[in-house]
UniProtKB/TrEMBL annotation:
Biased composition (Basic residues): 383-393
Composition-biased stretches (Gly residues): 1-12, 29-40
Ranges of residues in domain Helicase C-terminal: 444-617
PROSITE patterns cross-referenced by the UniProt entry: HELICASE_ATP_BIND_1, HELICASE_CTER
Keyword annotations: ATP-binding, Helicase, Hydrolase, Nucleotide-binding
PANTHER family linked: ATP-DEPENDENT DNA_RNA HELICASE DHX36 (PTHR18934:SF237), ATP-DEPENDENT RNA HELICASE (PTHR18934)
Name the record gives this protein: ATP-dependent RNA helicase DHX36
Biased composition (Basic and acidic residues): 394-406
Ranges where the Helicase ATP-binding domain occurs: 185-355
Source organism phylogeny: Eukaryota, Metazoa, Ecdysozoa, Arthropoda, Hexapoda
Amino acid sequence: MRGRGGGSYGRGRGSRGYASSSAHHSQGPGRGGEGGGTGGRLRHPPHLKGREIGLWYAKEQARIREKEDKETRPKIELSPSKRAKITELLGSLERHSKASIPTGAAAINDSHVMRRYRQNVESNVNAAAIRAGLRPGDIVGLVRNSEWDESLKNDLERKQSSPKYQTMMRFREKLPAYQFKDEFLKLMRENQVIVISGEAGCGKTTQCCQLILDEMIQSGNGSLCNIVCTQPRRISAVTVAERVTEERDEQIGRNSVGYSIGLESRIPERDKGTILFCTTGVVFKYLIDDPKLTKYSHVVVDEIHDRDVLSDFLLMILKDLVNLRPDLKVILMSATLNADKLSNYFRHCPRFNIPGSTFPVTEYFMEDVLLQTSFTFETNKRPQQRRCRGKNPRKSEDQGKSEDQKFKRMLESHVRKLERDKTYPRHVLKELIKPEAEELNLDLITSLILHICETDRDNGAILIFVPGWDQISKLSTQLQSCCNFSGCSILIIPLHSKLPTVNQKEVFSRPPSGRRKIVIATNIAETSTIDDIVFVIDTGRIKITNFDLQRNLETRDTEWVSMANATQRKGRAGRVQPGICYHLYSKARENTFESFKKPEILRKRLEEVVLQIKTLNLGMTRPFLKRLLDPPPYKSLELAIQRLIQLHALDSDENLTPLGFHLSHLPMDLQTGKMILMAGIFECVDPILSIAASLSFKDPFYIPLGLGQEKNVDRARRELGDGSKSDHLTIVRAIEGYQRAQSQNRERDFCYRNFLSESTVNLLMNMKKHQGYNLCGALSKYCYC
Ligand SMILES: Nc1ncnc2c1ncn2[C@@H]1O[C@H](COP(=O)(O)OP(=O)(O)OP(=O)(O)O)[C@@H](O)[C@H]1O
């Protein structure tokens, strides 16, 4: 915004830097005027001697070069009319609030932006008023349509006689969830809220919604049934919808089943007797227009153990909604939930555990892996990955050390017991006790894959859980360059939340015959069914966001997983046949795992949370947050409000500004969102999207192993930067250069010469596209329609 007053973005910054250096030099007598470029020769101050004189001249030359450099930099001069327009736009984005919208004033107040903003504020106020005004017993849900009841019933009966439906039904009937159908439906009929648990794969997600829908249709109540089932991730919403469609012998979006994952939707064509699988964010979009969710009779919150911020919000809204809508049923499900806590939150609602599992999964721990692979750790090798510390990497050095000591004692006692029991040979125990056994070791994973290839001739697919993109990328390179997999040809598929949905879906495709599929994924795969997975390799690590309240700092740390994560991971094997799960940590390490990770709301900055509350008009932030299942600390809320005011997303009375309103519709962190919105105003969206993508993900440069390589990478960066001295512009140029090279089919060479990770550049380009869609989506939906 520096350009606003001065009209020249580059100049404002440059002149400030220059002023400070000239102040320093003005003490020296004999200077030939500002900048030394007076036509006269530079003269050093007379009191300097010997080496000091040389140093003085070197410093002066550097200063002159810097000044010349600044003068030759491109400057943006804005015409007075453009400057006025931008100033006006910025002002309108940052100033107006619900409380202070002036009517009929300047043209800007009648713009599309302002009209949509006002409309949203008004409709939210109305929605909140309706919510507050509703009394228990008021009928606000679905309205019966007897014709529909009849036609849905006939349609289901017809379908039930189709051979495909019957084949699928034979499979469904074997699932534990189906076998306990009567108990489940009875509980459902008699209660408004229930909590369902059951082992991974027992059929909660695919069966419970169908059981409800079919019972409603068969009992002549089909027109009163629309089920919305939330999933924590886009990929699981899509795959579950596809699976359920298949089980019902239907077409997705054409009959009873559909999905919606933000920008991509296949909503059922009929509007009664349906099941919609969606991400939690989508329900929030519905809540904006329909705060009582009147279109739905049942809300199923699946994988509730995930406890992301939106799910916690949803729980709180549902807690209010069940009072206002006695006809609304709520089902909370997970394989690994804290059933007591949830039940207490919903006034001690009943819990139901579905007993039994589908296929057995054999578990192996580090000690077994070392035995099977005969792997030995290289003690003096540089660690491949930083060690994960206990449960909480943010602990102080002392706390960390004492935790390490405690664990060491625990491991030693575990090893002594194994020694006594003679369960494992001595050489395995020698390896197990080494500190390296606690590190994430890609060589060990490669050895284990080799072992699987040697022992399993059926090419069963392997799913490997790693903490982040770095490990996905390094491991794929390592596996690809390793040609000896016992004659077994492999197909590597990465799975990361930053990949576009279309790439994420590749993990479900079958490999060509004779090839073994290896999926390398983050915890995003914890809730999906990849039906050909037989082996799971769990490194036991997870990347997690933590918020240090004292330092007001949000970090991404690699930590040990919780038991809930480990159980979910194990559950990805054995979905359609018996499976094997290899945990790359010892049984002793597993004993240190906490049951669940802290809910996200306690680990995150709250700016986005506050903005959501304001956008949905859920009332005052402080009382709202207090009613959550796990209320966040007061101080973190204060910090969030202060930061939102600084960003002009809220005004000083904590009202949402138009800028805040737009930011709340951009699914990215607020500063990045603001930068992208501003880029729209300054007409420089493309380069800013490159910068935004790299800031939200990572820098595409890598430093290869080997002495002196840092210098080569620096040189490549400088050359790409073309004298800009800006890391951000260097990344912009790297991506532009890659695109140019791609059009000439020499992108590999370009990446190799410039130390760029091709997979990261590709991911950044995809993120740019996605953020671009988000920007268009947010603007077209909320500004111009
Ligand atoms: N996409 C699919 N392809 C093939 N079989 C599937 C698919 N999805 C589910 N199944 C089968 O249906 C069973 C039940 O799956 P479902 O997702 O309902 O289990 P769940 O109890 O919800 O488990 P989780 O909590 O792990 O998701 C699986 O064990 C598997 O056998």
